[in-house]
Amino acid sequence: MTETNGKLRYVPTTCPYCGVGCGLNLVVNDGKLVGVEPLKRSPVNEGKLCPKGATCWEFVQSPDRLTKPLIKKNGKFEEATWDEAYDLIASKFKETYEKYGPKSLGFQVSCRTPNEECYIMQKLARVAFKTNNIDNCARICHGPSVAGLSLSFGSGAATNPFEDVLNADVIFLIGSNPIEAHPLAGRRLVQAKKAGKKIIVCDPRYTPTARLADEYVRYNPSTNIALINSIMYWIIQENLHDAEFIEKRTTGFEDLKKTVENYADVESITGVPTERVKEIARIYAGAKNAVVIYCLGITELTTGTDNVRSLGNLSMLTGNVGRPGTGVNPLRGQNNVQGACDMGAYPNVFSGYQKCEDDATRKRMEELWGVTGLEKEYGVTLTEQITQCGDPIRAMYIFALNPVVSYPDSNHVMRSLEKLDFLVVQDIFMTETAKYADVILPGASFAEKDGTFTSGERRINRIRKAVETPGDAREDWQIFVDLAHKLGLAGFDFNSPEDIWNDVRRVTPSMSGISYARMEKPESVHWPCPAEDHPGTPILHREKFSSADGLGHFFGLEHRPPAEVADAEYPFTLMTGRLLFHYHTRTQTDRAKLLHHEVPAGFVQINTDDAARMNIRNGEKIKLTSRRGEVETLAKVTDQVAPGVLMMTMHFGDAAANKLTNTALDPLSKMPELKHSAVKVEKITGVQ
Amino acid sequence: MAAKGDMVYAWTTSPDIAKVAECGGAVTGLLKFALENKIVDAVLAVKKGVDLYDAVPTIITDPAEIGQTAGSLHCGTLLISKLVKKYLDGAGDMRIGVTVKGCDAMGLYELAKRNQVNLDNLLLIGVNCGGSVSPVSARKMIREKFGVDPDSVVKEEIDKGQFIIVTKDGQHKGISMDELEDEGFGRRSNCRRCKMKVPRQADLACGNWGVIGDKAGKATFVEVCSEKGANLLDAAVKAGAVATEPANPKGIEIRGKVENAMLKLGDKWRARYFEGLGEGKERLEKIMEDTSRCIKCYACIENCPICYCVDCSTKKTYLVPPGELPVPFMFHLIRFAHISDSCVNCGQCEENCPMEIANSLYMHSLQTDMERMFGHTPGVNMDLPILALVEEKAERERLSATGSDQIFNVFE
Ligand SMILES: Cc1cc2nc3c(=O)[nH]c(=O)nc-3n(C[C@H](O)[C@H](O)[C@H](O)COP(=O)(O)OP(=O)(O)OC[C@H]3O[C@@H](n4cnc5c(N)ncnc54)[C@H](O)[C@@H]3O)c2cc1C
Ligand code: SF4
Ligand code: SF4
Ligand code: SF4
Ligand code: SF4
Prior knowledge:
The complex is a heterodimer. Chain A is α/β, with parallel strands linked by helices. The longest helix of chain A has 19 residues, at 82-100. The model of chain A has no long low-confidence stretch (mean pLDDT 93). In chain B, helix 3 (81-87) packs across helix 4 (102-113). Chain B is of the alpha/beta class. Helix content of chain B is 38%, strand content 15%. Chain B has helices at residues 15-20, 26-36, 81-87, 102-113, 135-144, 177-182, 189-193, 227-238, 249-277, 280-291, 299-302, 330-339, 348-351, 359-374, 392-402, and strands spanning 7-12, 42-48, 55-60, 96-100, 122-127, 153-159, 162-167, 172-176, 204-207, 220-224, 242-246. Chain B is globular and about 60 Å long. Mean pLDDT of chain B is 93; it is low at 407-412. The complex binds flavin-adenine dinucleotide (FAD) and iron/sulfur cluster (SF4) (4 copies). Residues 21-28, 45-46, 55, 69-74, 76, 99, 101, 127-130, 132, 158, 206-209, 220 of chain B line the site of flavin-adenine dinucleotide (FAD).
């Protein structure tokens, strides 16, 4: 129970935005949130916050919050009681399942939500409906990281903690702009630079992070594999690779060596002169310890998984894995993108990446959960679920996601959702997606419930309830417990998020040592942690890799162009990205006065020369068209992007980049190609 | 009868408080007395959070709970002043007893000048302050320099130029601050430069310096700094809540010497830091380069005890175009212009900056220059600052409309 009176109560918790996992204090006066104050005791951020973290309390008490369950009747939402809503959901899901089987249901969970809720939702889907059609939005950010790093190293997670870059001599960033997207990880770069470490930034855009670099390499969008292969070619050519490490700890080197032989000169693909590639190869390979940091510029492509594996190749080639100051680290986009995957809200694994296809694992899970008949087959992924709406998926449960804005090709999403027989949306706001629902359940914000988020460095951070939910809104874990009871399921007698966490520990060997008590200290614990007396594992793959054979796996990978490249009709390459001041579809950030002040509307960055040629002025409204749709947005004329390249923010529904983006998928991870599509630019006549 | 300027040894008569207090427990004893006797409605002090590295400000209204706040947390780098404005309505309709370090007291005075807190409603119990250490840095220092697991430390203190820790198994270990600070550990950079060691603008200034003889470690040295302070002490003594005896003259002398030595040390650090900044254009270039990393988190404004404007000029789009990175330098110029005459060197703008920008160093260097030029010292009394906030456009309009030549009207 939270106290409702008293002033200046500090509730230490974790930022609900990005995967850095900054600690902060929510300040509560008389049961109301009144601000955020620094939590200087947190080892992650030492009290420092970015503009998003600093204002993260404001949306919680927004008057727009959903406060009552809503049921759509004759096309209009009407307030309902929780019992009515639960009964309707239980009966519809049961009916659909009985009539059409497990493939007719889809479950989608946001990686914004705490571990406990991701876990209980996937448990419910698997136990009640024997379906693996459960996925989370890591699919559209770091699915390729999970897939790629699993193939290379045997574990899909970041290898080293954020602070560890201070132990590196060289920091190699590619497709990552942490100063804007992960500012408190960006801070570590600033510290590293002050300590004289060398920073290499490869990015098609001259970003605020690139400004920090000692070596900035601009390359053509989506030519990552070619660039990295070429760097590796020169490392091998100049004999700078770590033969001993390769010999003892890896397999597949010959395959790699053979493949990269064709990549001595890639200037025609990447736009980077060979001499420059050689320089970068020497700096990276010459370092005693070098770390690779990447982000969505690598993953959100049809080559996503291969891009990630290429970075695995690069680090193993130079023996830069398994020590302080080394490794390959994806920066996680959302606060709990690591955790949502860890919890098994994923179509082919239970919590802790225990594979559904493995008979022994399924048997063990059946025993632990007290059920039979758990599904073996790979379930349907997030965006494929959308495509399957209507056939075979007839009923869907979307928890805290806004696919209409955030998935690629918004028009397609809207058309698909309309085909469902029954849609449940559980959220805190009436989103663009919620409008398509048959039942809307009002959930709780991060400030209104207990739980945990797992940050990008595998540190499991506590969130703590500071205030009560508004109106009749309920804590989300409670909603799932209630529903499970309506469905008559056993194994859902949880009275608190801690109870649920203890169920996670019971079934997940790699996390069984991490109790709530150990998470009280802000240092908390990095998983894997198999026992109460185990210290946790900040650095992975120390002695051997996590793969079945204990070895790191090289892969010879060829450059492939993106699914859709610029041509005469659509001459511009469109990239998309996140802004410092906003988060995803802005349902939270735009409700913070400050963030709205900084960036009230979407825009597209266009190169100065292109703009001059087309007579486009800074701030002018222009039209972008792709094969899928068109949007109007404001031009921001800048040299941050190269000629022929556009960069558009992802946050704005009225100028939605995702009306333009491509749904082509990475074959291995099913990641849609959000970061690369071909568009044309037009002046809007009559507008000055 | 106590009077302004008196110096006494004081201690709590409550064995419960004595057990948990830093030295004599006079501070906690007096605060409890003030609460019990409705001299204040609430106490704002600092308690231990998850461990002794975690200093959490808290409001106490039940005298029985005051014990939570006893003891000094040297990793408590927080600033109390702004909390009073932001969350307690500037003590507008509540009388609050507050424990204040030098920077806390200075910040409250600056806020009071700007009508943001009501000093009349505040009872300020000052604590001498030799400096504070950021918690994460302290833990690292204890692990690396002391070779001790920071979680096994049960007490830390700064005494006789040393940072001293006591571990669970009773071991004491001390290392000189000079040595620690030369290696980048120790007190925050603003604390090194700080010269507000005995906060005499509070109602009472309490500390352990100068407590000698059989009272060493068992009494608090209290200097009476105002009539309000004198009255509180008298009443508490009369009621038997605290006991006092005149301070030992030798102790007073020692205290004076230590204070002077600390002031000299502050001067030494100022010279070191300010000289490193260079002069004129060189300094400006350094500042422009360092601040160009800014990501506009506004922490340097939100946490600054001088900033209070509802319509902050940094948000005027004709001055600072929003949403731009690198952030236009005007953003920082506005802060320099509005704050530098009154900066109290509390360090918050630097400690909370996510981009490691030495904000308080820049502002403090400007402030000391201005102090030299205009003779105004911020934070010590209610004298108005040299510059006052003027929103130029609005101000020019007002001047032309009223024909007034009175520019500074914001303190009315
Ligand atoms: C950071 C720090 C440095 C100090 N350095 C010196 C020094 O160099 N020389 C000297 O003579 N005295 C110093 N003191 C004061 C001294 O430690 C005692 O607080 C003082 O002697 C009163 O003793 P007491 O037993 O009466 O206090 P107690 O009854 O134990 O009460 C202590 C009070 O201090 C408050 N407090 C604790 N930590 C903080 C903090 N970080 N910020 C604000 N308030 C806090 C508590 O809430 C409580 O109200 C320092 C205090 C602090 C907090
Ligand atoms: S860096 Fe990320 S976790 Fe930290 S405050 Fe900003 S958004 Fe929150
Ligand atoms: S600035 Fe001065 S008064 Fe404030 S904590 Fe540092 S040394 Fe103490
Ligand atoms: S400018 Fe910085 S150091 Fe000066 S008073 Fe403000 S926050 Fe404190
Ligand atoms: S605290 Fe630092 S990053 Fe934040 S606004 Fe101030 S200078 Fe910029």
